[in-house]
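Lecture notes, unit on binding sites. The following record was shown on slide 14. It pairs a sequence with adenosine-5'-triphosphate.
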Amino acid sequence: MKILETTDLSVDFNGFKAISELNFSLNQGEVRVILGPNGAGKTTLMDLITGKTKPTAGKIKLSGTDITGLEPYEISKLGVGRKFQGPNIFDNMTVFENLEVALQGYHPVFKALFFKKKKEITDRIYDILTKINLERKALNYAVNLSHGEKQWLEMGMLLAQDPQLIILDEPTTGMTADETYKTGELIETLFKGRSVLVIEHDMAFVRQIARMVTVLHQGKFLAEGTLEEIENNSTVQEVYLKEESHA
Ligand SMILES: Nc1ncnc2c1ncn2[C@@H]1O[C@H](COP(=O)(O)OP(=O)(O)OP(=O)(O)O)[C@@H](O)[C@H]1O
Protein backbone atom coordinates (compact mmCIF):
# COMPACT_ATOMS: atom_id res chain seq x y z
CA MET A 1 0.00 0.00 0.00
CA LYS A 2 1.12 3.56 -0.70
CA ILE A 3 1.47 5.71 2.38
CA LEU A 4 2.20 8.78 0.30
CA GLU A 5 1.45 9.68 -3.27
CA THR A 6 1.88 12.96 -5.13
CA THR A 7 0.33 13.50 -8.54
CA ASP A 8 1.64 16.21 -10.85
CA LEU A 9 2.57 18.21 -7.75
CA SER A 10 3.79 21.72 -8.49
CA VAL A 11 4.54 24.88 -6.60
CA ASP A 12 5.33 28.16 -8.16
CA PHE A 13 7.02 31.00 -6.24
CA ASN A 14 6.36 34.11 -8.34
CA GLY A 15 6.90 32.24 -11.56
CA PHE A 16 9.74 30.05 -10.26
CA LYS A 17 8.81 26.36 -10.21
CA ALA A 18 10.43 24.96 -7.08
CA ILE A 19 8.54 21.66 -7.56
CA SER A 20 7.34 20.82 -11.01
CA GLU A 21 4.76 18.14 -11.91
CA LEU A 22 6.22 15.68 -9.44
CA ASN A 23 4.84 12.15 -9.28
CA PHE A 24 6.29 10.55 -6.19
CA SER A 25 5.21 7.68 -4.01
CA LEU A 26 6.34 5.95 -0.87
CA ASN A 27 5.29 2.45 0.18
CA GLN A 28 4.04 1.62 3.65
CA GLY A 29 7.01 0.71 5.86
CA GLU A 30 9.65 2.02 3.48
CA VAL A 31 12.65 4.22 4.36
CA ARG A 32 13.40 6.48 1.40
CA VAL A 33 16.14 9.07 1.05
CA ILE A 34 15.61 12.14 -1.10
CA LEU A 35 18.80 13.35 -2.75
CA GLY A 36 19.47 16.31 -4.97
CA PRO A 37 21.88 19.22 -5.35
CA ASN A 38 21.27 22.53 -3.57
CA GLY A 39 17.98 24.08 -4.60
CA ALA A 40 16.63 20.82 -6.05
CA GLY A 41 13.39 21.26 -4.11
CA LYS A 42 13.87 18.68 -1.34
CA THR A 43 12.82 20.97 1.52
CA THR A 44 10.00 22.41 -0.56
CA LEU A 45 8.65 18.89 -1.16
CA MET A 46 8.61 18.25 2.60
CA ASP A 47 6.94 21.65 3.14
CA LEU A 48 4.24 20.65 0.64
CA ILE A 49 3.64 17.27 2.28
CA THR A 50 3.32 18.83 5.74
CA GLY A 51 1.09 21.70 4.58
CA LYS A 52 3.64 24.44 5.37
CA THR A 53 3.57 25.38 1.68
CA LYS A 54 0.44 25.06 -0.44
CA PRO A 55 0.79 23.56 -3.91
CA THR A 56 -0.10 25.56 -7.00
CA ALA A 57 -1.25 22.39 -8.78
CA GLY A 58 -1.44 18.65 -8.25
CA LYS A 59 -2.50 16.37 -5.42
CA ILE A 60 -1.06 14.80 -2.31
CA LYS A 61 -2.56 11.66 -0.79
CA LEU A 62 -1.74 10.17 2.59
CA SER A 63 -2.84 6.54 2.89
CA GLY A 64 -5.31 7.22 0.11
CA THR A 65 -6.78 10.35 1.73
CA ASP A 66 -6.48 13.59 -0.18
CA ILE A 67 -4.57 16.03 2.06
CA THR A 68 -3.89 18.66 -0.61
CA GLY A 69 -4.27 22.16 0.80
CA LEU A 70 -4.85 21.08 4.41
CA GLU A 71 -3.28 23.13 7.20
CA PRO A 72 -0.12 21.86 8.96
CA TYR A 73 -2.00 21.10 12.21
CA GLU A 74 -4.56 19.01 10.28
CA ILE A 75 -1.84 17.05 8.49
CA SER A 76 0.03 16.56 11.75
CA LYS A 77 -3.19 15.21 13.34
CA LEU A 78 -3.50 12.74 10.48
CA GLY A 79 -0.13 11.35 11.55
CA VAL A 80 2.65 13.12 9.70
CA GLY A 81 5.55 13.89 12.03
CA ARG A 82 8.48 16.02 10.96
CA LYS A 83 11.85 16.61 12.49
CA PHE A 84 13.74 19.66 11.33
CA GLN A 85 17.51 19.86 11.04
CA GLY A 86 18.44 21.18 14.48
CA PRO A 87 17.28 19.65 17.76
CA ASN A 88 13.89 20.96 18.86
CA ILE A 89 13.33 19.87 22.44
CA PHE A 90 12.46 21.50 25.77
CA ASP A 91 15.88 22.35 27.20
CA ASN A 92 14.63 23.14 30.70
CA MET A 93 12.78 19.85 31.11
CA THR A 94 14.25 16.45 31.83
CA VAL A 95 14.60 13.81 29.15
CA PHE A 96 11.70 11.92 30.75
CA GLU A 97 9.49 15.03 30.81
CA ASN A 98 10.22 15.75 27.16
CA LEU A 99 8.91 12.31 26.24
CA GLU A 100 5.97 12.73 28.59
CA VAL A 101 4.98 15.95 26.83
CA ALA A 102 5.33 14.29 23.43
CA LEU A 103 3.10 11.42 24.57
CA GLN A 104 0.30 13.29 26.27
CA GLY A 105 0.77 16.98 25.60
CA TYR A 106 1.57 19.57 28.22
CA HIS A 107 -1.36 19.82 30.64
CA PRO A 108 -0.01 20.68 34.11
CA VAL A 109 -3.45 21.58 35.46
CA PHE A 110 -5.03 18.39 34.24
CA LYS A 111 -2.17 16.11 35.14
CA ALA A 112 -4.29 14.38 37.79
CA LEU A 113 -6.64 13.23 35.05
CA PHE A 114 -3.82 11.19 33.61
CA PHE A 115 -3.08 9.57 36.94
CA LYS A 116 -4.67 6.26 36.01
CA LYS A 117 -2.71 6.07 32.83
CA LYS A 118 0.53 6.83 34.64
CA LYS A 119 1.93 3.29 34.66
CA GLU A 120 1.12 2.76 31.00
CA ILE A 121 2.74 6.07 30.11
CA THR A 122 5.83 5.44 32.23
CA ASP A 123 6.29 2.03 30.64
CA ARG A 124 6.01 3.50 27.17
CA ILE A 125 8.50 6.26 28.02
CA TYR A 126 11.02 3.74 29.36
CA ASP A 127 10.55 1.61 26.27
CA ILE A 128 11.47 4.60 24.09
CA LEU A 129 14.28 5.65 26.45
CA THR A 130 15.85 2.21 26.08
CA LYS A 131 15.60 2.37 22.31
CA ILE A 132 17.24 5.81 22.15
CA ASN A 133 19.87 4.76 24.72
CA LEU A 134 18.98 7.47 27.18
CA GLU A 135 17.47 5.46 30.03
CA ARG A 136 20.38 6.37 32.33
CA LYS A 137 19.84 10.05 31.55
CA ALA A 138 16.05 10.06 32.06
CA LEU A 139 16.26 12.59 34.88
CA ASN A 140 18.93 14.83 33.31
CA TYR A 141 17.91 18.17 31.91
CA ALA A 142 17.77 18.04 28.14
CA VAL A 143 20.02 21.09 27.89
CA ASN A 144 22.92 18.99 29.23
CA LEU A 145 22.71 16.30 26.54
CA SER A 146 25.23 16.09 23.69
CA HIS A 147 24.14 17.22 20.22
CA GLY A 148 23.59 13.61 19.11
CA GLU A 149 21.62 12.74 22.24
CA LYS A 150 19.35 15.77 21.71
CA GLN A 151 18.64 14.62 18.17
CA TRP A 152 17.89 11.08 19.39
CA LEU A 153 15.60 12.42 22.10
CA GLU A 154 13.66 14.33 19.47
CA MET A 155 13.39 11.19 17.35
CA GLY A 156 12.00 9.42 20.43
CA MET A 157 9.50 12.27 20.87
CA LEU A 158 8.48 11.88 17.26
CA LEU A 159 7.88 8.16 17.77
CA ALA A 160 5.89 8.87 20.95
CA GLN A 161 3.35 10.64 18.75
CA ASP A 162 2.92 7.41 16.77
CA PRO A 163 3.02 9.00 13.30
CA GLN A 164 2.13 7.04 10.17
CA LEU A 165 4.72 9.01 8.17
CA ILE A 166 7.99 10.34 9.58
CA ILE A 167 9.93 13.10 7.83
CA LEU A 168 13.55 13.75 8.81
CA ASP A 169 15.32 16.78 7.48
CA GLU A 170 19.09 16.16 7.41
CA PRO A 171 19.10 14.37 10.78
CA THR A 172 22.89 13.90 10.94
CA THR A 173 23.90 17.54 10.44
CA GLY A 174 26.60 18.48 12.96
CA MET A 175 27.10 14.89 14.12
CA THR A 176 30.40 13.03 14.48
CA ALA A 177 30.86 9.92 12.30
CA ASP A 178 30.11 7.77 15.32
CA GLU A 179 26.90 9.67 16.12
CA THR A 180 25.88 9.47 12.46
CA TYR A 181 26.30 5.69 12.48
CA LYS A 182 24.29 5.40 15.71
CA THR A 183 21.55 7.52 14.14
CA GLY A 184 21.39 5.08 11.24
CA GLU A 185 21.01 2.20 13.69
CA LEU A 186 18.33 4.14 15.52
CA ILE A 187 16.32 4.68 12.36
CA GLU A 188 16.36 0.93 11.85
CA THR A 189 15.35 0.03 15.42
CA LEU A 190 13.25 2.95 16.65
CA PHE A 191 11.36 3.42 13.39
CA LYS A 192 11.23 -0.26 12.45
CA GLY A 193 8.32 -0.95 10.11
CA ARG A 194 7.48 2.77 9.85
CA SER A 195 7.32 4.86 6.70
CA VAL A 196 10.19 7.34 6.74
CA LEU A 197 11.28 10.06 4.31
CA VAL A 198 14.76 11.44 4.85
CA ILE A 199 16.63 14.32 3.26
CA GLU A 200 20.31 13.60 3.68
CA HIS A 201 23.65 14.34 2.05
CA ASP A 202 25.94 12.00 3.98
CA MET A 203 26.44 9.09 1.57
CA ALA A 204 27.71 6.61 4.16
CA PHE A 205 24.54 7.30 6.13
CA VAL A 206 22.34 6.98 3.02
CA ARG A 207 23.97 3.64 2.27
CA GLN A 208 23.33 2.52 5.84
CA ILE A 209 19.61 3.32 5.95
CA ALA A 210 18.06 3.35 2.48
CA ARG A 211 16.99 0.60 0.15
CA MET A 212 15.72 3.12 -2.38
CA VAL A 213 16.74 6.65 -3.18
CA THR A 214 14.88 9.33 -5.15
CA VAL A 215 16.86 12.12 -6.82
CA LEU A 216 15.34 15.53 -7.53
CA HIS A 217 16.82 18.19 -9.75
CA GLN A 218 15.40 21.66 -10.37
CA GLY A 219 12.09 20.65 -8.81
CA LYS A 220 11.70 17.62 -11.04
CA PHE A 221 12.07 13.89 -10.67
CA LEU A 222 15.51 12.90 -11.97
CA ALA A 223 16.06 9.27 -10.97
CA GLU A 224 15.07 6.54 -8.54
CA GLY A 225 16.76 3.29 -7.53
CA THR A 226 19.19 1.73 -5.11
CA LEU A 227 22.09 3.95 -4.10
CA GLU A 228 24.37 1.85 -6.30
CA GLU A 229 22.11 2.39 -9.31
CA ILE A 230 21.93 6.10 -8.56
CA GLU A 231 25.71 6.39 -8.22
CA ASN A 232 26.14 4.71 -11.60
CA ASN A 233 23.42 6.75 -13.30
CA SER A 234 25.09 8.98 -15.91
CA THR A 235 22.38 11.69 -15.76
CA VAL A 236 22.79 11.93 -12.00
CA GLN A 237 26.58 12.05 -12.31
CA GLU A 238 26.31 14.83 -14.86
CA VAL A 239 24.02 16.93 -12.65
CA TYR A 240 26.29 16.58 -9.61
CA LEU A 241 29.45 17.30 -11.64
CA LYS A 242 27.86 20.44 -13.05
CA GLU A 243 26.92 21.55 -9.53
CA GLU A 244 30.49 20.98 -8.34
CA SER A 245 31.94 22.98 -11.22
CA HIS A 246 29.61 25.88 -10.28
CA ALA A 247 30.50 25.71 -6.61
N1 LIG B 1 9.23 30.60 -0.16
C1 LIG B 1 9.99 30.64 -1.25
N2 LIG B 1 9.96 31.69 -2.10
C2 LIG B 1 10.72 31.74 -3.20
N3 LIG B 1 11.59 30.77 -3.56
C3 LIG B 1 11.70 29.70 -2.74
C4 LIG B 1 10.91 29.58 -1.53
N4 LIG B 1 11.24 28.38 -0.95
C5 LIG B 1 12.18 27.83 -1.74
N5 LIG B 1 12.45 28.59 -2.79
C6 LIG B 1 13.40 28.28 -3.88
O1 LIG B 1 13.06 27.01 -4.38
C7 LIG B 1 14.25 26.26 -4.71
C8 LIG B 1 14.24 24.95 -3.99
O2 LIG B 1 14.59 25.17 -2.63
P1 LIG B 1 14.67 24.02 -1.55
O3 LIG B 1 15.05 24.66 -0.25
O4 LIG B 1 13.44 23.20 -1.58
O5 LIG B 1 15.89 23.15 -2.11
P2 LIG B 1 16.68 21.99 -1.41
O6 LIG B 1 16.76 20.87 -2.39
O7 LIG B 1 16.09 21.67 -0.07
O8 LIG B 1 18.11 22.63 -1.26
P3 LIG B 1 19.23 22.52 -0.09
O9 LIG B 1 19.91 21.21 -0.28
O10 LIG B 1 20.12 23.67 -0.40
O11 LIG B 1 18.52 22.65 1.21
C9 LIG B 1 15.43 27.16 -4.37
O12 LIG B 1 15.86 27.79 -5.56
C10 LIG B 1 14.84 28.16 -3.39
O13 LIG B 1 15.50 29.40 -3.49
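Take-home: The CA atoms of residues 8 and 16 lie 16 Å apart.
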